[in-house]
Amino acid sequence: MPIARKISDFMERSSWIRRMFEEGRHLKAEYGDENVFDFSLGNPSAEPPPEFTEALIEVAHDTSPCRHVYMPNPGFPETRHAIADYVSREQGVTLSGDNVMMTCGAAGALNIIFKTLLNPGEEVILLTPYFAEYYFYVDNSGGVPVLVPTAEDFSLDVAAIEEALNQKTRAILVNSPNNPSGRVYSESNLKELVMLLDRKSREYGRPIYLIADEPYRKIVYDDVSVPAIFPLYQNSLIATSFSKSLSLAGERIGYIAAHPGLEGMNCIMDGFILCIRILGFVNAPAIMQRVIARVTDAVSNVEEYKRKRDLLCDGLGARGYQFHKPEGAFYLFPRTFIDDDIAFVRELQGQNILTVPGSGFGTPGYFRISYCVADETITRAMEGFGRVAEKYL
Q: Could you read off the pLDDT of 15-45 as tens digits, one per residue?
């Protein structure tokens, strides 16, 4: 075998999202793009806001010397200070630039965090349904992913989390708004969680870190707000990116923000600085750092995603699909009409509809629809969704 057995095994169980995306390419070649309804990939459809484009042009026109050389590994000081000011307003806790590291997206941020924090065999709790690549991020650093289901409505099941905690638990990762469910964890739900983490940290004699992956924080609907975690829990970290909020998925720009009261703060930040080097990221992209410093408060058109959410929910609801209406992000996670979610997704594929089985997110019996697509894709797919539903209703 030309590749490592472990990677071969991981390839077999790896992202259903990419797998369905690739299958979609073949269908589109056969039937034409307009006749394939691809809901597989969370690729932002809203364009970046005008202020981003203006800042990008301004930065690109700056011909000062040494604009594209190495900078300090955690990022340009001015960018880190700008992010710290923004996060301080968002979280209601005062940060300095020393509490921030610029990263190659949220994926880069999470890999740096796990590489820094985890000893081999230590555990990280992942809440299902979860973004499947979290599993591999934890494993990359020798950690052990522990999957814990959320409640039926996808809120935090704190009792189930308590059962999973033990002396090996190093961290818990929360993703709100959640990919794939669209759930935003309530402040009361998070307070229950941090009370548990406080109690167990004292019992075990070392902190259990709360890591919040928040790339969808600004994409919320119906006056829902995402609670700030820093006022709730001292040993917390935020990993995020501008991939979704500014529609910059291809630019790979994000950051880590550490609670200023984090135990071992200086040592942990030094660890981040080493790990961004030895993981091969070296630093976040220079141009994007300079641009982002100017547009920290900007966001793409969230109303566009809300319109698509409502269009999809109205259409599927009328055809008998059951789901919790998303509060944020741009995914819907309905139940399948049969237990075998992979078989159900194949049935939809027979209608040229591409979705992702819930098994890929650790939650069989569901499937994910990414609705950051053209309105016409949603409306034209409804006939096929209906035909599949009619078999079971």
A: 666 677 677 777 777 777 778 999 998 899 9
Looking at the structure, tell me whether residues 98 and 198 fall in a common domain: yes
Residues 149, 43 share a domain: no
Q: Is the pLDDT of residue 1 over 80?
A: no
Domain count, the chain: 2
C-alpha span between 92 and 32 (Å, rounded):
50
Contact 326, 362 (CB under 8 A): no
Collapsing DSSP to helix, strand or coil, 169 comes out as: strand
- 109 pLDDT exceeds 90? yes
For 190-195, which contacts have Cβ atoms below 8 Å and span 24 or more sequence positions?
Answer: 190/156, 190/227, 190/229, 190/232, 191/232, 192/156, 192/158, 193/156, 193/158, 193/161, 194/229, 194/232, 194/233
Sheet with 356-357, strands from edge to edge, namely: 331-332, 367-370, 356-357
| Predicted local confidence at residue 296, as pLDDT | 97
Q: Are residues 84 and 233 in the same domain?
A: yes
3-state secondary structure of 184: coil
List the CATH number of the domain containing 70.
3.40.640.10
- Residue 34: the pLDDT is 78
List the domain range (segments joined by +) for residue 159: 51-292
Q: Which amino acid is at 157?
A: D
Q: Could you tell me the pTM of the whole model? A: 0.95
Containing 213, the helix (H) or strand (E) segment is strand 209-213
| Integer Cα distance of 292 and 287 in angstroms | 9
**Average pLDDT for 235-248:** 97
